[in-house]
Structure formats: C-alpha cells, structure tokens
Design brief:
The complex is a heterodimer of chains A (839) and B (236). Chain A is α/β, with parallel strands linked by helices. Chain A has four domains: 213 residues, 3-Layer(aba) Sandwich (Rossmann fold), CATH 3.40.50; 158 residues, 3-Layer(aba) Sandwich (Rossmann fold); 59 residues, no CATH class; 223 residues, no CATH class. Chain A has 32 helices and 25 strands. In chain A, strands 3-4-2-5-6-1-7 form a seven-stranded parallel sheet, sandwiched between helices. In chain A, strands 8-13-12-9-11-10 form a six-stranded parallel sheet, with helices on both faces. The longest helix of chain A has 18 residues. Chain A is globular and about 90 Å long. Chain B is of the alpha/beta class. Chain B has one domain: Purple Acid Phosphatase, chain A, domain 2 (4-Layer Sandwich), CATH 3.60.21. The N and C termini of chain B lie far apart (39 Å). At the A-B interface, α19, β19, α28 and α32 of A face α2, β11, β12 and β16 of B.
C-alpha cells in the first residue's frame, strides 16, 4: 500500500479526544496520516482541500474537525440560547447526502458522540424542515439548492451564526457548473454570516488543484488559497482494453461486436458495473446482453430517465448483492458506495481521463487492492482514445473542465435571494460577491446591470419601475417590494433547468393516445420525440416500444416485443474528448513506436494510411481532399471534440460559401470533420485561387461567428436556460401552469424580441457567454486554430483515405440542424403537390 | 383582380370559407376582398405590462412590435373595416393603462375606417379611451366572426382564441409555426400579437371542430404561407 501525504511537518499536532482514540484502538486501526494532518490544519484555523482516491477514508477525514470540535464543545445548559448549525455538508447528489448520513452515523453512534446529524433535501417533508429551523441539528447534510433556499430566509443570520465548518464533497464535479456558481455565492454569503467559518473541500481528481484551493476561501482581496493535502492513489488499477478476435468497426458507437466477450466477463466476476456515455447506449447494451443471457444472470439497468421507484429498486438489489451486473450512465458516476463490485466495464470511449479515473474508482472500495477495469472501444478511433486514457491513468494525469467565470443569470438569482433575506447595500454585496472565486473579477458595471435586471428587468426602456421587485430605499438599501417576491423566488431557486421531459406511459397497442391507465415507465426527452412519428419503434427502459402518440405531458407507448427498434438514436458521448486526451491521441497517431500497444487491425489501418496518404505530426493539422461520387470532400482531423468541430463546420461552410467553393454540408465527430462541396477544394488550392491558411484563419471567430450566432438555434436553447435561472421566466412546477413546450415557445419569442430591440441586454450577454463555453466550445476551437497556424498539412488524394473512412460513414446519420425552416415547409408542400398530381 | 394584386404584394394564400374568399396573409391577418374587411385575432397588447404587474419582466417591446406589424398589414390592404377578433388586450386593465404613444398609433390606424373590437376572454369589456365599436360578434355575409370557436362543426365561423400552430418533421428536423386552421367550413386564426405562443392543431382542444378530410393548415412562413394537409402534420 503506497499511501503518502505531501505535507510539511506541522508544528501543532492534532488534538484527538479520548473517544476517538478508543474507537480506533478497539478496531485495531490507527487514524491515517492525512486524517490527522487535516485535523491539525483545521484546528490551526485553516481551510483545507483534500485530494484523495476513493476508499482513502475521505469522508471521515472531512468530518473529523467537526466531530472533534463538537465533542469538545461544552454541553448546552437547559435554557441556554439557541444553537445553530455547526457544520454544513454539501454534495452534488441527494443520494450522496443520504449515504453519508448512514456512513457517518455509524462511527458517531459507536463513539457515543453528542452529535446530531440530519439531511435536508428536496425530499425532506415540510414539518421536518420547519423543525430543523427551530431546533437545528449539529451537522446538516444538504445540496446547493437547499443552501440557496436557506440563505434567502429572514432568519438565515441566526441559523448560521454558529457555523464553523462547511464540508464540500465531490468538489471537482460541483465547481464546473452553474450549480457551482450558485454554491460559490452561497458560500460567500455564509462567510459574512459566520466570519470564523472554515471550509473543507473533498475532491477525487483535479488537474488544477490551485483553482479549487482558491475556490474554497475568500478571493477579496484575490489570491488566498486553502491548504492542500494530497493522498496518492492506493493500489494501481488493473485496466485492460477488451481483447477480441472480432473485427473492430470503423465507425458507430454501439460496440455490438463486443457483447459476447462482455457477457463472458460478467459471468467470470461477482458483480460488474457497466458504464456507457448516454441513455440510449445503456438501453442498447442492456437489451443486447439479455438477448444472449442464457444463464439468466440478474442484470439490471439504471439511468436518470427511468422512473424513480424503478431506480430505487435497482439500487436496493445492488446493495443487497443480488445483482450480477448493472448497466448505468453518469447517474452513478459519483461516489456512492455500493458494496462489492469487482469489475468495471466501460463501453465506448471514456472521453476524459478524469472521468475514467472516477469510474474506475467505483470498483473495489478498498484502497490496497487493485481495481479491475476493462475498456471496450466501439470503433477504431476509440481504440486509440482508450489506449491514451489508459496511459493517462497510469501516469496519473487527470483533467477536469477549466473553471469559467461565474454566470450572470446565476448572479441575478443570487442577488434576489439576498434581498429576500434582508435589505442589502450595493457596495457591501458587490464586495461580498467578489469574494466568491468565480466572481472575483466581476466588474462593478456588470454587477449594477444585474441589480437593475433583478429590479425591473434591466431594459433600456425603463417602463416597469412601478412594478419593481426590489427598490432602493431612502436608507440606501435595496429591499424587496412585496413579500410575494420572496415566495416567487423560493419557487424558482436553483440552476437545474430540466429539458422538457414527458412521462412515458404504457397503453395497449393501436389505441393511440386514446388508451389510458398503463404504468409510467419513466421520462423521455422531448427533443427525442420531436423526431419520431406514431408507429415508430425505439428502445426505452430495456424494452422495444412503439410510439403511439402524445397527450399533454405524456407520451403513450405500447409493447413492440420481438420487433427491431427502428429509430436509430445518436449514441455518441455527450461529453467531448478532453484536451489532454486529444493530445495523447494525436501523439499515438504520430508515433509508430506506440502502435505496438494497439490491436493489429488498428495498427494496420494506420500503416495503410501512412502509405496512401500521410500521418500528421503531433502538432499538425492534416487536411485531406478527394473526390467521391459527384462531390468533392475535404476532411480535417483536429481531434478537438464534437462540439468544437460542429462550430468549426458552421464557420467553415460560411466561409467556403463566400470563397465560391459551394459547400453542400458537413459532418463532425469527436476526431474529424468532413465538408462536401460542388467545387474541388484540392483543385482550388492547387490553382492558388484559395489557401487553406485563409480557410482556417482565426479571424473566422470574429464576424463569421457573430453572424452565425445571430441566427443559431443553439442560442435560443441556451437563452431559455438563462431566462429561467435568472428569473425572467418562471420555472415549471408539477400540476401548475405551462408545459415545457409553452415555455420553449415563449422563450424563443422573447429571445427574438430582445435581440431585435436590445442586443446588449444582460441576459443576451449571459447567453452568448454560455454558448461560447458550452455548446460551441469556442475557447477550444480558438486554441486549435492558433496552434495549427502555419502547420496545416494538405494532402490532395484521388480517393478516400483510410483515416477518412469513419467520418465518411457518419454522413447521413447525423441530424441536420440550422436555419432553413422555410425550405422544409416548401419541401413538404412540394411532396403534397407531387402526391396529388403524380401517378 | 384586386385580390390578385394583394396576393402578389403580400404573398398571401387564398382560402375559401363557406363560399367566401379570403386571403391568409403571412403575418397572420385575414383579408376578405369582397367586403374590404381585415381581421386580426389575439393581439394580446400590453402583455409585457400584464406580466410585469406579477413581477415577471418580459421585454417591454411587444406592444410596439405588434402595432408595427398591424400598421404594415393595414397599409398593404387599406381595408374599409378592421375586426380585432378578441383578446386584443392581454388583460382587463390593459387598454386603460396603455401609454398614449401606443394609443395614438392605434387611433391613427382607425382613422377613415370602421373598427370593431370583438370581446374576448382576456378582455371581456370594451377597451377604455379608444375609438371603435365593441361587439361580441360580427356577421358578414355567410360568415360569423367571434372570439371563441363554437363546439362542433359550425359553417361560416371565423374565430381565434386557440392560437393554432402546426408542426412538421422532416429529415429529423422539426419546424413549428403558427397557422390558419380551416376545413373550408370554418377557420381559426393564428394569434397576431408578439410574444403569443401557439397550440398545435392536433391538440385535443380542437377535437370535433374540423372535418379532417378537407382540413388545411395555412402555415405562416417567412416569405409566404404554405398550405399543408392533415397527413403531414405532427403532434406536439
């Protein structure tokens, strides 16, 4: 066991009270070095970031300072004043809070510590919440949304006045989202309410620990960092890439070829966790495994769209050890402790090395035994990606998405929350907000725009003054104008805006939406239903279902057992290839020595590519051009992930249009992009009528980007989220008001009106910033364009190259998004005419 | 002849309702050339204000935008009579609270023509401080114009209220647009106001209103109106 902590010797040794020492001794254990280290730093008044692998006793370490402090605290005398929360634990998942209650409750009970522990989540009944307000537990386990609610109440000051510690679990996954922004702002508020507050961050894996260290402490003035304790991983995981005689496909995401081999592995192990990247992949894998499950092994399915009751049933069975395998998506990603898993199988490329590390941590929660994991690439590029991920894991290189500046929609929500709790002074709140790391660089002007937005919508036309939600009063403070505003706020708190989902309800076949009353199987994204017609069959909840129709918020389906699901679903990962992994894949591609570790069929493929075309050096961008059919193709291999490639495709085609290349379409994968056109790019380059340097010039991120964004459906979708989070549009609530569709429609209309009249409105700014970092991945595209300047390698070919085959196979499978709505209407009408006039 | 000129100018589509010829304008107005009558429905003026009173601040440009569109349609057709087919204002106090700049623009449009405000569920009373005549319905030859469609099939009824919209799916892509919904006997008009959403004509709210065999959705495109039949429409 190679456990070591990177600590400098600490002057003051930790003080561990008697019950703790006894408890450890009774079990023949000794506290681990990092647990003691964390305790002593905390006792010296420091905030600490603990980075440790799963199974390192992280939870106990995180709570040790609280437990010790609570044990040493004088008993509360009868009639003594109210005692607020002592320690707040915040996790990204409700389930994790419940899990911790159980895991922490045990030692507390065994040591007879005078410590009360309770959870507070969206599921906590009202009477319990009210009781918690009057008689708070010592340790409260909760989520970022609940914290936002708590600090927006009038008695927040009293409730949190005695707060000593905030323990933030799975911090690496919390900080990268808007939830993280909301949490950072909540933390800033807590520091005001309880100035002695210290934080303990628990994190599995991060590339930039310093970013998290700053996140944990006040950044006003900027620069301060929490202490860092790093525990090196225990036994190295044993990871292999699935070894198979079968042919690895050129393209696609199904990994069907590997199902029999995966089934064999399940048979050979006690309990296997199978991870995939998307819901539809999970459905497919589950279905295929059962098709060949001759031994009738208990294999279950778990993903976020399934009905809650069904998920709980699976989780219970898992805890009881009665399952042999479970197929899951990211709902199981985080550190829930589920007994004796002895094998993790990852189907599809793991995309980011951190993700892989996290998922493999799932197997075998004891640090000193190696975890077993098998990677199953679905296609040839994924073989290289798996290889890269594997090497990254051994190297210990881990990445998380870079932290971005705090979102303005979240800021607006928080400002209103603060006003609901108590009147604020703009100067004070501005200072407080800048103490939160994501908002450390917030400009005063932007802050004022946000306040203005909260007050009256922030429109140049100042027409809503008399309906203001918050008002500047004579004493210089901003106050809510009516108690109703606070009620409204509480209903809309949080940053998780569900895409519109419909219940999937079972009916008898052929009854259409008229049939009623079958069981609900789960929820399905509205976006998926947009593309199917009644009678189509698809996979859901492990069954082949026939789509019967939609009524209100329900999607009616019937059993279509024995039929093949007709609707192919895009099954690629929703997470783009990480920058680090992309670089590694380019590295493998460029270095024939590293091909030895690849299966023969893959290395042969690369060898033929080298003979027929060329393999780019690590930092180069290869662009191939060739004719095929009556079209001309240009294929580029940036390896920057699907999102960045899609943006690149949009911008390239605009530019090619202007250069007279007459592009017809493009398709993007995680690895490459292919554009087809009427004119031959290769020929045009040869005759010097265009240059690739011009085509791939960074300046496409200027006007072209602006012009495209202006008409992009992507922005509308992003705007909807910003509008809900910022409180412009009210959130949906069960049984009340609008369906998701109505929200979508009105958000689109609002977007159009706002863009026409006030393009600089704060919400449009927020939308553009979100789209740039999220759906468009502009940052990454910009880095790539700048990296390949002067390093574009062009190969003009007579026919398609081996490397181009996978992306060319993707053509026609991808959905086409973009403008052209009228063209579709026209086509539909033309078909009708043809139908009516033709034979 | 007159009709043809307008058609060319405004890219409208012709529909026949209970024997009366009407032009479906791509902006959502309906024009009866034989009567010189222009109908618009569900303007929902002052919707932004109605929301603001509840603390929800939609962009305050909806009224101006709706009026601009209405001015353009009136300029194109130069109708003798304009019928606003109910829900002209988003709520009861909408007309009395409307700023005078908008009031003036409306008065300018009304000058030299008859203007009928049909009452709707959002605005059951006559608008305050505005010209024009408030009525519950309008008879026009074989036609009856009222806000809410009558249950069952009703020859010659022109109504609004439901904000009809149509959806098509092609090549895995979905397009949703407001539309005129008609089976040749009656017509339900799209909502004209900015910030007004639409309800799919396949929703059960439309049950029993149309004979689907002769149904057409006259879908509002950017450039013109597209006539689609029931078989190509999708729910949702």
């Amino acid at each position: 066991m190679t456990q070591q902590t990177t600590i400098r010797p600490h002057a003051s040794p930790a003080h561990l009270p008697e019950p703790f020492l006894e408890w450890f001794a009774q079990r023949g254990w000794a506290p681990r070095a990092h647990q003691i280290d964390l305790l002593s730093r905390a006792q010296a008044g420091k905030s600490v970031l603990l980075i440790a692998p799963t199974g390192a006793g992280k939870t106990l370490a995180g709570f040790l300072p609280s437990l010790v402090d609570l044990t040493l605290r004088p008993k509360r005398k009868p009639g003594e004043a109210f005692r607020g929360i002592h320690t707040l634990y915040i996790s990204p998942l409700k389930a994790l809070a419940v899990d911790i209650e159980r895991n922490l409750g045990k030692p507390v009970e065994e040591m007879h510590l005078p410590v009360s522990i309770e959870t507070r989540t969206g599921d906590t009944p009202t009477h319990k919440r009210q009781r918690q307000k009057l008689d708070p537990p010592d340790i409260l386990l909760t989520t970022p949304e609940q914290l936002a609610l708590l600090i927006s109440t009038k008695d927040a000051g009293r409730f949190f006045s005695g707060l000593r510690y905030v323990v933030l679990d799975e911090l690496h996954s919390l900080v990268t989202s808007k939830r993280g922004h909301l949490l950072a702002l909540g933390l800033a508020r807590l520091r005001q309410l309880a100035p002695k507050l210290q934080t303990v961050g628990l994190s599995a894996t991060v590339a930039e620990p310093d970013e998290l260290r700053r996140w944990l402490v006040s950044q006003n003035p900027p620069g301060e960092m929490a202490d860092l304790i790093t525990v090196e991983g225990g036994a190295r995981p044993v990871i292999t890439i699935l070894d198979t005689e079968e042919r690895v496909p050129w393209a696609g995401h199904s990994a069907r070829y590997a199902i029999p081999a995966v089934y064999d592995e399940i048979r050979r192990h006690k309990t296997t966790l199978l991870f995939v990247n998307t819901r539809s992949q999970a459905e497919m894998l589950f279905q295929e495994l059962w098709r060949i499950n001759e031994d009738g092994l208990p294999i279950a399915l778990h993903h976020g769209s399934l009905d809650v009751a069904q998920r709980r049933k699976v989780e219970k069975a898992m805890e009881a050890g009665s399952l042999r395998a479970i197929v899951a998506t990211s709902t199981l990603d985080l550190g829930i402790d589920w007994g004796d898993v002895d094998l993790v199988v990852h189907v599809g490329a793991p995309k980011g090395a951190s993700r892989l590390a996290q998922r493999i941590g799932r197997s075998n929660h004891r640090m000193d035994e190696p975890s077993r994991a098998i990677l199953v690439p679905a296609n040839r590029f994924e073989v290289m990606e798996c290889r890269a991920a594997l090497e990254a894991n051994y190297l210990g290189a881990q990445d998380t998405p870079p932290l971005v500046d705090g979102s303005l929609d979240v800021l607006a929500q928080h400002i209103l929350g603060c006003a609901c709790a108590e009147p604020f002074r703009a100067d004070d709140l501005y200072d407080e907000i800048r103490s939160a790391a994501p908002y450390a660089h917030l400009e005063r002007r932007t802050f004022e725009q946000a306040v203005d937005f909260v007050a009256t919508g922030g429109y140049a036309l100042r027409t809503y003054e008399r309906y203001a939600r918050i008002r500047l009063t004579k004493d210089g403070t901003w106050r809510i104008s009516h108690p109703r505003v606070a009620q409204q706020y509480r209903l809309n708190v949080g940053t998780i805006v569900e895409a519109a989902y419909l219940n999937v309800r079972y009916v008898r076949s052929g009854r259409g939406a008229a049939g009623r009353g079958g069981p609900v199987l789960g929820k399905i994204e509205e976006g998926f239903l947009e593309t199917i017609a009644p009678g189509d069959t698809f996979l859901f909840a492990g069954k082949v279902l026939k789509f019967e129709g939609i009524r209100e918020n329900e999607c009616f389906v019937s059993n279509a057992v024995g039929q093949d699901p007709r609707i192919p679903v895009y099954a690629g990962g929703k997470f783009p290839l990480s920058t680090y992994l992309a670089d590694e894949v380019r590295g493998i591609l460029a270095d024939p020595k590293r091909w030895q570790s690849l299966p023969d069929q893959v290395s042969d493929w690369l060898r033929i590519q080298r003979d027929k075309s060329v393999l780019p050096r690590r930092g180069d961008l290869l662009v191939e051009t060739f004719p095929r059919g009556n079209r001309f193709y240009m294929v580029a291999y940036p390896f920057e992930g699907r999102l960045a490639h899609q943006t690149l495709g949009m911008l390239l085609t605009r530019r090619m249009e202007r250069m007279g290349v007459q592009p017809l379409g493009f398709v993007a994968s995680d690895y490459a992009i292919a554009v087809w056109s009427l004119r031959d790019v290769g020929e045009m380059v040869a005759s010097r009528s265009i240059t690739l340097a011009d085509l791939f010039d960074e300046d496409m991120l200027g006007d072209d980007l602006e012009a495209w964004l202006a008409e992009s459906w992507l922005l509308k979708r992003t705007f909807r989220t910003c509008a809900v989070i910022s409180g412009l549009i009210e959130k949906r609530h069960p049984g009340q008001e609008k369906t998701g569709r109505q929200v979508t429609v009105s958000a689109d209309l609002i977007y159009d009106v706002l863009r026409a009249h006030e393009p600089d409105h704060i919400l449009l700014k927020a939308t553009r910033a979100d789209a740039a970092t999220g759906l468009l991945d502009i940052h990454r595209l910009a880095e790539m364009l700048s990296r390949v300047r002067g390093r574009i390698v062009h190969k003009h070919l007579e026919r398609i190259s081996p490397l181009a085959v996978p992306i060319m196979l993707d053509i026609g499978k991808e959905r086409v998004n973009g403008g052209a709505a009228d063209a579709l209407l026209q086509d539909t009408e033309d078909d009708l005419i043809e139908e009516a006039m033709g034979g | 002849m007159l009709a043809r000129r307008y058609e060319a100018e405004t890219f409208s589509a012709t529909a026949v309702i209970a024997g009366e010829e009407a032009l479906c304008d791509r902006r959502g107005a309906l024009y009866f050339p034989d009567h010189g009558l222009l109908a618009v429905s569900d303007l929902h003026l002052e919707k932004g204000y109605a929301y603001a009173r509840r603390g929800v601040f939609l962009p305050p440009y909806d009224t101006a935008e709706t009026l601009t569109k209405l001015e353009a349609v009136i300029a194109d057709f130069d109708p003798r009579v304009v019928v606003s087919l109910g829900d002209s204002f988003h709520d009861r106090v909408g007309s009395s609270h409307m700023p005078s700049i908008f009031r003036d623009r409306l008065e300018t449009m009304m000058r030299g023509r008859d203007w009928l405000w049909v009452t709707g569920n959002h605005d059951p009373d006559a608008p305050e401080n505005l010209s024009g005549t408030s009525v519950t319905e309008v008879a026009l030859g074989a036609l009856t114009l009222r806000h809410e469609p009558t249950a069952g099939q009703f020859a010659g009824e022109i109504a609004g209220h439901l904000h009809p919209g149509a959806r098509i799916v092609r090549q895995g892509k979905s397009v949703r647009r407001p539309c005129f919904a008609s089976d040749g006997l009656r017509m339900i008009m799209p909502a004209f106001g900015a910030l007004t959403g639409s309800l799919n004509v396949l929703d059960r709210a439309y049950a029993g209103l149309f004979d689907w065999r002769s149904f057409r959705a006259h879908v509002l495109g950017t450039e013109r109106v597209y006539a689609l039949n029931r078989s190509v429409l999708f729910p949702g």
